[in-house]
Amino acid sequence: MLRQAVVLISITIFRGIYIDEKRTLDMHWRSNIFSIFFIFLPAVVFAQRVNIVDKASGHVIPYVYVVMENQNLAVQSDATGMADLSLFPKKGTISIQMMGYTAMMIQLDTLKQRDYTVKLRQDDHTLDEVVVAASRSRQLQDVSTQTVRRVNSLLIQESQPQTGADVLTQSEQVYVQKSQMGGGSPMIRGFAANRVLLAVDGVRLNNAIFRSGNVHNVLSIDPYALQQADVIFGPGAVNYGSDAIGGVMAFSTLQPTFEDSTRTATKLNIASRWSSANNEKTIHADMHTATNKLAYIISFSFSDFDDLRMGRNALPLYQQPLLASRQDRVDVALPNENALLQSPTGYRQVNFMQKLAYRPSSNWKLEYGMHIANTSDIPRYDRLKLTDAQGMPQFAEWYYGPQSWMMNVINIGHTRKYLLFDQLRITAAHQKHEESRNDRRFGRNLLRSRFETVDALSLNINFEKRLADGHAFFYGMENIKNTVGSEANAFNLESGEDEPLSTRYPDGSQWASYAAFLNYKTNWSSRFSTVAGIRYSHIATTANFDNTFYNFPFTEAVLQHDALNGSIGAKWQLSKKLEWNATAASGFRAPNIDDIGKVFDSEPGNVVVPNPALQPELAYNIESGLRWDSQKLRLGATVFHTWLEGAIIRTDFAIDGNATIDYDGQLSNVQALTNASHARVYGWQADASWQLSDHLSIESHINYAKGYTIEDGLEVQPLRHIAPMFGSAFLHYSKGIARLSIFSRFNGEIQAENMPLEEKNNTHFYPLNESDQPFSPSWYTLNFRSAWQISPTLVFNAAVENITDEGYWPFAGGIAAPGRNIILALRLSL
Fold it and tell me: In whole angstroms, what is the distance from residue 514 CA to residue 236 CA?
């Protein structure tokens, strides 16, 4: 009865949330979601269980696999870390496996001596684990030579990230840029936007309009629906094709798991979160229902964010003295009564996910999943902060319309030994992306709106064949097709009529990819192993240009590109404690619709125009790493160097000899994306952890990268997405029901001579040095967070970020970072 009562109370709370029509979703649509929650309320099933916890913190670990291979038995622990072993024999050996933890072998008859509690040790760098992201395979991998950083479910629950972008921050090796509060553009080893790849459950999110500027699609991912997030550093072209130059961010969402009997089991999780910096109100619920043949998950999250408050010690440059307001059909600039409040920045978001899995037999599994993410309008604060020579706002309105993402995906899995494969996995997906940009200049009546849609179809067929002596083949094929829709109109607030407006992209343009790939892995000995892969890709891009508004010297673009990419890597266990790994890989990025067909104002006074002559950019990467792992001390370091041939960068351009163009009534300089001769990025990553005692440990991470365009062998221009040196240091204490952490995050300075050209133009975001040149200052924050396991089913989180209330502007950002931020969260599992 408790479960039903909690669900009914939660539904009542959900229904009471009011979302106004302009900024969020339709009430009827939300009511349908709540109705689905109400339907699935099966009874609770209790059974004899073993408790699985984290060795360091004592916190429960959800969704751990318990396997007895000789009996072909496997179960998974529930959200409270309890695993039902009632179907297992009384004696025998079980294997307990969890991504991010060292696997453990235990005799069943010794569990009583352990008080039916198993303690697993965290191992973020383990290679003998399920690395779905790196190989698109759910099988235990013998070796992976790429550097992989995992954010597991335990870290997600402890850190309480606000958005999908903030999940990546917890890796401590990804730099996240924000142009507005509703954003997050990951930077990996000096690459970002359309040079890094996002994937959810093995399906790529990158589409034909991912731009070279900052991309915020990671916002669509619900941190409460995540099982883990993996960051795979370096080119991932062999497995993912175009765009995976800097790395791959692979998000794995909650998976439906089967019971071992025909009875129905139900698990329910309810969570809430509040933070003070933007008065965040988040509420979440997910439910798992399963039998031995059917398994179902449903998940829902809603977040409401008010305007963001910056730190009290901020420079006056970061503050906004005037706010645009429309009164009596006239724009006026009003004093900002709270200079620390960045307004407008607030928005709302809703996420919904459901998955249904069917297991007709032991070697077949069918799964259907649906993901939906929608936001309200999101103000673009960096544009709203712009002022003219008189100090008046340049824009009265500038906002992204609701960002919408829906994905339907079907997975078919088959396991049986055949001549050509042991495992088969087919993934078919359809995605619908919708976004828009809306702006109105201060004192003008014309609200300009440009709307974009992308329909993305994809099909992956993956095979796995394991041979004797540690040899294995992973191969398959992939087909992707994107169709872009682009519309525009200008609404006159005074007359109430629409006026024609140029579209952002050629309407109806298409981008398609056809590929085949092969990976071969082998263990030459118990200490030395290698992996090699190859992929062939064919990319076709078509676009028809409308010259109604611009007199382009072309009417269409038809591009055909082929790419052959490969990778080879090795891992050598030099001793019981020391491991060496090295990888060489190539990658590429074929021009997409955004590259060849976009017309937009990159910043006021500059307009980017189409360039249908673009060629792919090619990447070549080498890296090597060492890792020392003793019982209490872990040290790791990786060095990397990436060469980029034909790098696509923004440069000054001309159309029919004209270096300027009229864009939305403003004479602007013409720019375009072109292939530069050469670029390179190099740097290193390092981390360390030391278990000082049973209850106390420390860890630290640091990342460094440099990148330039190259002309005549000389470094000329810093690349746009090279983050400053950044890192973190943690002191952890855990005992009993509590895990406490005091930590600092820090960024180094980027001096004026190392500022990218695009950032130098943003003088209103950066202070000036003694030579009146903009630079990005260094900064650090002090933070505290805690997690309290009040009971086996109740966890309480409390944190204080930016304790000293520092006011700082992160590099390449469009908004000041949050000031002192108090976070309170509660999670109930039933």
Answer: 16
Nearest to 440 by CA among 485, 393, 377, 388: 393
Widest CA span in the chain: 83
**Alpha carbon distance 421, 476 (integer Å):** 11
Determine the pLDDT at residue 136.
Answer: 52
Q: Which of 207, 213, 198, 178 is nearest to 246 (CA)?
A: 198
List Cα–Cα distances, 708 to 245, 268, 755, 776, in angstroms. Answer: 16, 51, 11, 17
Region for 58 from its dihedrals, namely left if φ exceeds 0, alpha if ψ lies in -120 to 50, beta otherwise = left
Rounded CA gap, 638 and 226, in Å? 28
**Which residues are bridge partners to 294 per DSSP?**
358
Q: pLDDT of 236-249, one tens digit each?
A: 999 999 999 999 99
CA-nearest of 238, 191, 186 to 217 is 186
Contacts of 36 (CB under 8 A, 6+ apart): 298, 354
Q: Where are the alpha helices (DSSP H) in 232-369?
A: 237-240
DSSP-derived letter for residue 530 is E
β-bridge partners, 627: 579, 636
**Start-end of H helices in 241-305:** none
Of 376, 421, 424, 438, which is closest to residue 403 (Cα–Cα)? 376
Quote the strand ranges of 173-239, DSSP E.
175-177, 185-188, 191-192, 196-200, 203-204, 226-233
Give the pLDDT band (50/70/90) at residue 59: low
- pLDDT confidence of 692, banded at 50, 70, 90? very high
Task: Please say whether the beta carbons of 412 and 425 come within 8 A.
Answer: yes
CA distance 288 to 268: 6
SS3 489: strand
Alpha-carbon span 505 to 452, nearest angstrom: 8
SS3 2: helix
What is the spatial distance between Cα 188 and Cα 243, in angstroms, rounded to a whole number?
13
CB 79 within 8 A of CB 62: yes
